[in-house]
Amino acid sequence: MTSFPSDYKSGFVALMGPPNVGKSTLMNAVLGEKIAAVSPWPQTTRQRQMGILTLDNAQIIFVDTPGVHRPLHKLGEHMNEEATDVLHECDLTLFVVDVSRSPNEEDRILAEAVADHERVIPAILVLNKVDLVDEPVLEDHQSAYLEILHPVQESIPISATLGDNLDKLLPLIITRLPESPPFFPQDQLTDLYEREIAADLIRESVIFHLRDEVPHSVAVRIDEYKERDHHGAYIAATLFVERDSQKGIVIGQGGSMLKKIGTAARKEIESMSGRKVYLQLRVKVRKNWRNDESALKLFGFGRSKVK
Ligand code: GDP
Ligand code: MG
């Protein structure tokens, strides 16, 4: 952007909430493009990711976080640290909840983390998935969420999948942002490189096809990401699992499962990057990688701060 009005607003907006409430879906919907992996099973989002929306009067930088949940192993702890770090660093927090159900333990853990916070956090409660509930139930759940998140004053019901009320959410956000020139060029959509998004989309495909059979023990490493001129891109990736038995499941009979995973991931990467993709996947066992600091580093956990 070469020139912008002097009252231009720009700031960082954290998307906080338990897994599966629709944070990534909301970010994709607002940006009008799929840059974050979405799945009906929790924990597809493993890394913090920014989604940048540039408007005439404001630039909103959404920061999508891995959901807050109880630390079950090192990876879990890491994901929690990331989430609360973000809270400190952003100008505004959107607490995203699933209003089709009442608050559960995960919502309460999150609410406690907010109450422990030393400064008052400017926040909006976003009641997602309104398409799944009737008015009386919505009101019930809304007051239950406002009660546990009592420092938060403002709430808005939305549907990230249908796009309902997103046009009302954006002005609410912009009002709360500080005056500042934009942080990023106007055509930049995200801070992640295409290869990192590709890795996330491959993980999403694994989780989609295997559900609970290989419970979140899959890490994806991109080994090669090459342009082949007008032929598109060539991507080679390794899926790391924790056990030999999981390797068998991921590969499937005669390689059939790996083929399905690869085909679905390839289509998503093609539509994200707008060109043809040739995707080659292989599977390797790396025992207990989720508790292994060096492996966590290798797979890209431990990213830099927001600003
Ligand atoms: P995250 O873990 O909070 O990032 O959640 P995701 O964005 O991955 O979404 C989890 C699941 O909820 C996916 O199956 C989404 O399609 C679904 N979902 C998200 N938003 C809505 C919504 O507004 N209505 C309905 N019915 N489902 C939604
Ligand atoms: Mg997500």
Give the gist of this structure:
With 307 residues, the protein is of the alpha/beta class. It is 36% helix and 21% strand.
Descriptors:
single chain, 307 residues, alpha/beta, Rossmann fold, GMP Synthetase, Chain A, domain 3, 2 domains, six-stranded mixed β-sheet, three-stranded mixed β-sheet, 9 helices, 36% helix, 21% strand, globular, binds guanosine-5'-diphosphate, binds magnesium ion
Characterize the structure shown.
The model is unreliable at 68-73 and 302-307 (pLDDT under 50). Strand 4 (92-98), helix 3 (105-116) and strand 5 form a beta-alpha-beta unit. The strands form two sheets. This protein has a six-stranded mixed beta sheet, with helices on both faces. A three-stranded mixed beta sheet has the order 7-8-9. The protein starts with 8 loop residues before the first strand and ends in a 9-residue tail after the last helix. The radius of gyration is 20 Å and the shape is globular. The chain has helices at residues 23-31, 74-89, 105-116, 135-148, 166-176, 194-210, 244-251, 256-273, 293-298; strands spanning 9-16, 49-54, 58-64, 92-98, 123-128, 154-157, 219-227, 233-241, 277-285. It is an alpha/beta fold and 307 residues long. 36% of the residues lie in helices and 21% in strands.
